[in-house]
Amino acid sequence: RWALAELILSRAEELAGAGLDFIELERDPEIQALGREAARWSALAALDARCAEHLGRAGLADPLRARRDAAGNPDERNELVLIGVTELNALQKRVLADHAGRITAIVHAPESLAEGFGPFGEVLPEFWSERALSIALDQIIVTERPGDQAQAALRCVSEAGGREHPTAVRIGLTDDELAPHLEQAAAWADQPVHLATGRALGATSPARLLAAIAQWIRDERFATFAALLRHPIVERWLEDRAGARDAELEPAGEDWLTLLDQSFSDHLHARLAAAWLGGEGLGGEDRRRRMQLLHDHVRVLFAPLLAGETRPLVEWAEPIFDVLAQLYSGREEPVSDEALRVLRDGLQSMAQLEPAVQPTVDAGLAIMFLLQSVPEPVVNPAHEEDIDVLGWLELHLDPAPVLIVTGVNEGALPQSRLGDLLLPDHVRERLGLACNRTRLARDAYLLEAIHQSRDTLILITGRTNADGDPLVPSRLLLACEDEALPERILAQAEPDRARRWAVPGSAPDAAAVSAFTIPEPDGTSPEFEKLSISQLNAYLRCPYRFWLQHVLKLRATLDHAHEMDAAQFGTLLHEVLQRFGADPGIRESREATAISAYLSDQLESLAGDRFGAAPLPAVRIQLAQLRHRLEAFAQVQAEIAAEGWCIVHTELSLPETSVIDLPGEQPMRLSGKIDRIDRFGSADRYRLIDYKTGDGARSPFEVHHGSKKVSDEWQNLQLPLYDHLARQAKIVSGDVELGYLHITKAVAETGWDPARWDEDHLEGALECARGVIRDIRAGRFSNRMSIPPEYDDFARICQTAAFHDDDDPDAEDGSSRYAGGDE
């Protein structure tokens, strides 16, 4: 609604400049002939009339109408001098016409070009639109990317002596998107620049804070809460409070960001409508208590805005100011100081609004109103050594002898507007409004005037934008004599002619050794009293990553997931099956319907504990997928029970006495948890079962050997070690089958998949395990295996995905291909 209101208001202002309004435009014969399109103008006319009526009842006037009415009553006492006025709207021309005898227009051009200007010095499009300009080819620098444009500009500054005489050089910015590139390049080059154009209020720290507060107030979800806490000023406030006022806020062994990440990773919070989730095995009561404490303290900080009520807009000015004062008082942040001043002025204006036209809003909408209604950019103070960066329209009358203009591309110079929803370009031209034709003429004149009055003018154009999309060169660069046109086109169209810089200006010389080295193990032998079977498998997968995870204890914790990852998906399914296997009242059932109903109930219970009453949308879909898999499992389980197999153990932890012997060395204790053990009636016949919940059914041989056939190469030792240790503990004996019970997304693949190894193969697995243990004890961790980045928590450390973008919407999402893995 706000965006639509801004669009309508801006077009109303333009029409007012032509002495028109929506009501008059509705009566235009051409508008009435538009058919269905005319209904839009009728709606706008009705809106205009209602606005005038509402203001009239409040004793107020529409400033646009008031300005137009005042134009009809000129002050005949004054004389007017127009200096460098290049464009005028219809209303301004009407006022000037009434002053015609008392106007002096000063035009920056030789007398020979007088026919290119109107009676008040305005540029005439028919003269300037098709005129050749005097720009030479050697004044044009063609670059590839926005960063290259910035590098080119700073090199020109250096060549022009800008460091010694900063007031003699100006940089022109036709495209605001180039500003951050220019600032970054200037920082590298140790050449300070001053953005006289300023930056949008929304890009400043206080405005970002207010936006985060508004989002949280209006949509109290974990994501908005976490975004608010990640604002640096809120984080510092929490640190100060923890250190000075509330010892309970002090994190125990972890910072608040880690606490947030871990809480979200475990529970995938959606809305914060109930108590914080947590419990045994899911972060514990301590994490839940501290999350609740953190949430309570943040609510105290923003209490003035959290009443949940609506008030007249003016009544929110003071609470918003109080929150900003509490957070920023005493902070020495020059960049924020100017933004706070702009916001303070905006709050004062908001507080002075006439009561009759104030909306009644909540705090979140009041903040949005404040941020949207402050048009003033934030301009930081300038310093003597700064090179000023000006907007295009400010360059003409600036006295600096050297001008460097960046962003000389179509759309930015000349400025143009395409696809206007209300006033297309042909309508603008007919109504006498600013249009692409008049902007072209204005910018052509300004460019020529700048060129003729400067010692040096450099124009920098780019071939691509920050996203890599191609840019069109400015038509003003092609406004030359016909014989020079082919060379101009080739200079801007041929990729090899574009300037590129691999490293920024003034970058230090390359070091003899790269700073981006992958950290290497120190060669020490870690002390492990025991190892888990999963750890042995992790070493086989990659010794180096084993060192990162199990020696250095590194863990990846993220807070931007939208669904359960592979581990969470598999763990939840295992917990449901554990409850099933541990319940003597159902585990021997041969009724698929009864088993399915039981499993569904358990899934609902566990999901409620973990994700609350309102899980994320993707999690709800995953829960439905889990329920579908469990229905298929119920059918298979009923058939297994009917064959005579009975569940005797589920999620069985191996005893502390479980070891693997190493001849000549100290035995190694091993730990592990067997998903399930079945026995066939009372016979000495067992099955050691591992649930597999991946999307596809990979056989035990594929998992353990990397192929569908048995080989001497082992990539996984899980089932052979289960067999060895279960026999060692006398948990099983006699005929023991090893295998997987697949519970995949494909119903046809759900079922028992045995692994038929002979004694020699099983002994080979034990020898492989002994070799892994010896390597771990010896500290052999330098070998790095190749693992796809989407499966690898340590891809950035290993530099296999240094430029991988987790937030790229076009990147392939591999989660669906491995969701449900149980490692």
Query: β content, as a range?
Result: 5-15%
* Average of per-residue pLDDT values: 86
- Distance between the amino and carboxyl termini: 49 Å
Strand order of the largest sheet: 3-10-9-4-8-5
Radius of gyration (CA) equals 36 Å
Assign the structural class, choosing from mainly alpha, mainly beta, alpha/beta, alpha+beta, or little secondary structure.
alpha/beta
Tally of individual helices: 30
Helix content: 40-55%
The tally of strands reads 18
**Poorly predicted ranges (pLDDT <50, ≥5 residues)?**
803-823
Shape: elongated
Instruction: Please describe the biggest sheet, giving its number of strands, its sense, and whether it closes into a barrel.
Output: 6 strands, parallel
